């Protein structure tokens, strides 16, 4: 039974925001940190793809190197989160701060100490950290091994997990093993440090991440029985284009490509539809004796996901995940408006997504990314962003319906980019998501001063009333 308040949201509902180390910290080579895979990705734009370079090339701009300098300004930023009333801050640890090349046998003390300071600052304000262990970054040094194509990297990841589970025992009790793990299907570099894009390589890398995640779940429970360890799904949700049975079947197949990642991590085994697909394609997974038991014993405690938009699929939608654009299904939804970056705005789809996951897995669900990228204008220290308020208001109303009407045990809600940060997709700063404006442009110019947007005060009231005032 949900412990509901008068607002319709549970009394212990986790309200907050989300960031990622590679998109906000900066300080890419300080405190013993060495380059990660995110540190060799240049900036881009809505029209120009980001470039992955071989090492750091002079004259190129790498947004992660400076980002918004959260590494040095975390106290200021967390104080602003606390002013909004956050009870949860979803963040990530930079793996290469803890094990700079990924190959070390002992963790880097300076990196461990930094996150001690960050977690202590959160806890001082009653903000619970929700930590993503690997969020679109891993030590660049692990590429010498072949990255996630090599089973040895599973051991490197577990050594990293053991270090942070032990170090932050009592400070962190909610963890996510991999950010948007299903996105390996169309973004092999960000998710797995791989430039190859063939289907077999994707499936082998994903298999090793499944094994790593399952073993991390078991390890985390052994180290601290209070730990709750979840998986995260990158929000791919689509509707059939029509009631034509062929459209419906193609939509089902499209969703299978994404949902199989959830099936493995939440159920502990490969679904039959994926087994058959791998057989048809002649792909053999590098299965070792005992792996089935590892997957089954390492099921996650909760499922979390990002939600930004919905898609439409039909009989002409290509099923290959690496076609010209990951979400180019060939169909558009005429009933929905879009953001400046062409992402369809579909609040009702969020309620649909929450139901989809709980009906499928019957474990707690959490929305850990939701928001809209927009060009904000700072005038005399003020940003008026009614479009952002409208976006969040409409989506949170659907979360409330999922709880009140559908009975879904939603753990919490953390908006994406609660403070402006570097866009993972385009490397831009002008694609802003936050309640807090950061004075920084797409090329690293600006004062880095923080300014509260109108949405800052709106979200503060939402949290204060536990969602009663939307």
Task: Please describe the structure with a list of short key phrases separated by commas or semicolons.
eight-stranded parallel β-barrel; 12 strands; single chain; about 35% helix; 13 helices; two-stranded parallel ribbon; TIM Barrel; about 475 residues; about 15% strand; alpha/beta; globular
Q: What would you note in describing this structure?
A:
The protein is α/β, with parallel strands linked by helices and 470 residues long. The chain contains 13 helices and twelve strands. It has one domain (14-464): Alpha-Beta Barrel (TIM Barrel). The protein has helices spanning 21-24, 70-84, 95-98, 109-124, 152-167, 188-192, 199-223, 245-267, 272-281, 291-297, 347-361, 386-404, 454-464; strands spanning 14-18, 88-92, 128-134, 174-178, 228-233, 238-240, 302-307, 311-313, 365-370, 410-416, 436-438, 450-452. The strands form three sheets. The protein has an eight-stranded parallel barrel with strand order 1-2-3-4-5-7-9-10, surrounded by five helices. Strand 9 (365-370), helix 12 (386-404) and strand 10 (410-416) form a beta-alpha-beta unit. The longest helix is centred in the middle third of the chain and has 25 residues, at 199-223. It starts with 13 loop residues before the first strand and ends in a 6-residue tail after the last helix. The mean pLDDT is 96.
């Amino acid at each position: 039974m949900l412990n509901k308040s008068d607002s319709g949201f549970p009394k212990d509902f986790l309200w907050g925001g989300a960031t990622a180390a590679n998109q906000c910290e900066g300080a890419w080579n300080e405190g013993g940190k060495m380059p990660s895979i995110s540190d060799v990705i240049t900036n881009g734009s809505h029209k120009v793809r980001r470039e992955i370079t071989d090492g750091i090339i002079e004259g190129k701009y790498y947004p992660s190197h400076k980002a918004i300098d959260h590494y040095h300004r975390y106290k200021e930023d967390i104080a602003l989160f606390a002013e909004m009333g956050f009870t949860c801050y979803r963040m990530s640890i930079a793996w290469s701060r803890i094990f700079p090349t990924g190959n070390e046998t002992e963790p880097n003390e300076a990196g461990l100490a930094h996150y001690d300071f960050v977690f202590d600052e959160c806890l001082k304000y009653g903000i619970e950290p929700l930590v993503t262990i690997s969020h679109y970054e891993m030590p660049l040094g692990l590429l010498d091994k072949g990255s996630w194509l090599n089973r040895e990297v599973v051991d490197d990841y577990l050594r990293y997990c053991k270090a942070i589970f032990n170090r932050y025992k009592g400070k962190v009790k909610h963890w996510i093993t991999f950010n948007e793990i299903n996105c390996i299907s169309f973004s092999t570099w960000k998710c797995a440090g791989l430039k190859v894009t063939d289907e077999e390589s994707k499936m082998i890398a994903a298999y090793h991440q499944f094994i790593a995640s399952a073993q991390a779940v078991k390890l985390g429970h052994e180290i601290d029985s209070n730990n709750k360890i979840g998986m995260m799904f990158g929000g791919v949700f689509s509707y059939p284009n029509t009631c034509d049975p062929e459209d419906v079947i193609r939509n089902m197949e499209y969703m299978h490509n994404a949902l199989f990642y959830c099936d493995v991590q939440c159920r502990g085994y490969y679904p039959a539809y994926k087994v058959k697909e791998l057989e048809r394609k002649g792909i053999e997974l590098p299965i070792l004796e005992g792996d089935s038991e590892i997957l089954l014993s390492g099921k996650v405690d909760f499922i979390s996901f990002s939600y930004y938009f919905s898609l439409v699929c039909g009989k002409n939608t290509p099923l290959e995940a690496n076609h010209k654009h990951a979400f180019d299904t060939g169909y558009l939804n005429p009933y929905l408006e879009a953001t400046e970056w062409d992402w369809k705005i579909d609040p009702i789809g969020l309620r649909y997504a929450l139901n989809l996951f709980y009906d499928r897995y019957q474990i707690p669900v959490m929305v850990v990314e939701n928001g809209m990228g927009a060009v904000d204008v700072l005038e005399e220290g003020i940003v008026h962003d009614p479009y952002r308020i409208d976006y969040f208001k409409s989506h949170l109303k659907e979360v409330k319906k999922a709880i009140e009407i559908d009975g879904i045990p939603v753990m919490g809600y953390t908006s994406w980019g609660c403070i402006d940060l570097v866009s993972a997709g385009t490397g831009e700063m002008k694609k802003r998501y936050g309640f807090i404006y950061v004075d920084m442009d797409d090329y690293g110019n600006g004062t880095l001063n923080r300014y509260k947007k109108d949405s800052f005060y709106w979200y503060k009231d939402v949290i204060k009333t536990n969602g009663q005032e939307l």
